[in-house]
From TrEMBL:
<dbReference type="InterPro" id="IPR012341">
    <property type="entry name" value="6hp_glycosidase-like_sf"/>
</dbReference>
<dbReference type="Pfam" id="PF01204">
    <property type="entry name" value="Trehalase"/>
</dbReference>
<dbReference type="InterPro" id="IPR008928">
    <property type="entry name" value="6-hairpin_glycosidase_sf"/>
</dbReference>
<dbReference type="GO" id="GO:0005993">
    <property type="term" value="P:trehalose catabolic process"/>
</dbReference>
<dbReference type="InterPro" id="IPR001661">
    <property type="entry name" value="Glyco_hydro_37"/>
</dbReference>
<feature type="compositionally biased region" description="Basic and acidic residues">
    <location>
        <begin position="10"/>
        <end position="23"/>
    </location>
</feature>
<feature type="region of interest" description="Disordered">
    <location>
        <begin position="1"/>
        <end position="23"/>
    </location>
</feature>
<dbReference type="GO" id="GO:0004555">
    <property type="term" value="F:alpha,alpha-trehalase activity"/>
</dbReference>
<protein>
    <recommendedName>
        <fullName>Alpha,alpha-trehalase</fullName>
    </recommendedName>
</protein>
Length: 446
């Protein structure tokens, strides 16, 4: 790393790796990339056109449906849909993890009130169903999605604290109670319909129909090469047979959130309980999921009692969650970060497969944000900012050409379209907007 913080490590070759991500790619080399990185100069490009577009686009994503209508589940507050497509009106419902990453771009803006509405809607879903479904359609109640409810509630709580709201702690108490209910009902469930905790206290993604394909939809990574989805004819993979490193990292952060909230509220016994639960989960994850020889975290096949050989950006979730040791973080960054960092940002996996949109060469906003947050947490500020710069530049260049943002990008060759996958290329886009705003603000702060 140079004094100016410009990345000097990158993969020498970005050609497709082995079918299961084995170490068959050309070796890494140390080269200067200051001249070729999209943010090589200290002066930021003008992101104002994109930011202005996003500010105006939020209004197009608003929906308010207080009553059930057909398959659509009514919600008490306004919400955001991920996208608006006049040709294919795909979205009229609120989605679980999309909402959190969209909300990141609302904080501190004229639309900040929507953070509270999104959180209240999730609370209402927990009150009604015991968990937050994948999306607000009845046919989505067979599964959930990556559970970011406590993170969204904390965004809202922090706004209340910053404003000096007198009801901040009561709000925290209410949201924590519902978060615990969702956690215990859904994510720690061991019986039908929430059979998720499966092995050594760790959980899996699931679906009430016991469908690997729909469990992959619960993961949000539909469709990917993870969980043996990298084989011909195996689009569904074996998601219910794996304990995903991403999910269990999220569950760890939820348990830490509960402990922090209980401490704040003076509930010492409950705080100790959740702190111990989080510590136990972290210890088990480090034992089962950390591959010391390869230097990264892996999904764990609980049936075969073996780690997955496929490296993906999910490996960086333990850094975001704070459960990785500093030595583990150092090894991840030195050995794997340069392989995932491509000209347009971080690539989802090192292997490609036709029809798998959560794989090479695609990059996705929520994963950029997760990895960047983990890099910041462990002191890799320059690396975090390099990702922010490359991703924002990719979005800005694409916006200049098309006048919109999209769901995913080709980060290997940013001037080319990404792998469309089953759903095609969707314009909008809520979480791309939210992460772009968050990254641009961080870069402007320096």
């Amino acid at each position: 790393m140079e004094d100016g913080g410009v990345m000097t490590l990158r993969a020498r070759d970005t050609e497709r790796r082995g079918a299961r991500g084995e170490d068959t790619a050309p070796a890494l080399e140390v080269i200067e990339v200051a001249a070729e990185g999209p943010m090589a100069t200290p002066e930021l490009p003008d992101y104002r056109p994109v930011l202005d577009y996003i500010t105006g686009f939020w209004d197009r994503l608003f929906r308010f449906h207080p009553h059930d209508e057909g398959t659509l589940i009514g919600l008490p507050r306004a919400y955001l849909v991920p996208s608006v497509d006049p040709v294919r009106p795909l979205f009229q419902e609120m989605y679980y993890w999309d909402s959190y990453f969209s909300a990141l771009g609302l904080v501190g803006t004229m639309h900040e009130w929507l953070v509270f509405d999104l959180a209240e809607n999730m609370a209402a879903l927990v009150e009604r169903f015991g968990f937050v479904p994948n999306g607000t359609r009845y046919y989505f109640t067979s599964r959930s999605q990556p559970p970011f409810f406590t993170k969204l509630a904390k965004l809202a709580y922090d706004i209340k604290v910053a404003r000096g709201d007198a009801d901040a702690d009561e709000y925290l108490r209410h949201m924590t109670r519902l978060g615990v209910r969702e956690h215990e009902t859904c994510w720690l469930g061991e019986k039908h319909p929430h059979e998720r905790r499966k092995y050594r206290g760790l959980s899996r993604y699931h679906d009430i129909n016991y469908s690997h394909f729909l469990a992959s939809c619960e993961s949000g990574w539909d469709h990917s090469t993870r969980c043996d989805g990298d084989r011909p004819g195996s689009e569904a993979g074996r998601w219910m047979d794996f304990l995903p490193v991403c999910l269990n990292s999220i569950l760890y952060t939820r348990e830490r959130d509960f402990a922090e909230a209980m401490t704040r509220l003076g509930a010492t016994t409950e705080a100790n309980y959740w702190r111990e639960a989080a510590d136990a989960r972290a210890a088990t994850m480090r034992e089962l999921m950390w591959d010391a020889d390869r230097g990264l975290f892996c999904d764990f096949d609980w049936k075969a009692e073996a780690r997955s050989p496929l490296p993906t950006l999910a490996a960086f979730y333990p850094m975001w969650a704070g459960l990785a040791t500093q030595d583990q973080a150092n090894e991840m960054v030195s050995r794997w970060f340069p392989r995932f960092l491509l000209p347009g940002g971080l690539v989802t996996s090192l292997d490609s497969f036709p029809g798998r949109q959560w794989a090479y060469p695609n990059g996705w906003a929520p994963l950029q944000w997760i990895v960047v947050s983990g890099l910041d947490r462990y002191g890799f500020t320059a690396e975090a900012n390099e990702v922010r710069r490359r991703w924002c530049d990719t979005c800005a260049h694409a916006f200049a050409a098309s006048g919109t943002l999209v769901e995913k990008y080709n980060v290997a060759e940013p001037h080319r379209e990404p792998e469309h996958g089953l759903y095609g290329l969707i314009e909008g886009f809520g979480w791309t907007n939210g992460v772009f705003v968050d990254f641009a603000r961080a870069l402007q702060r320096g």
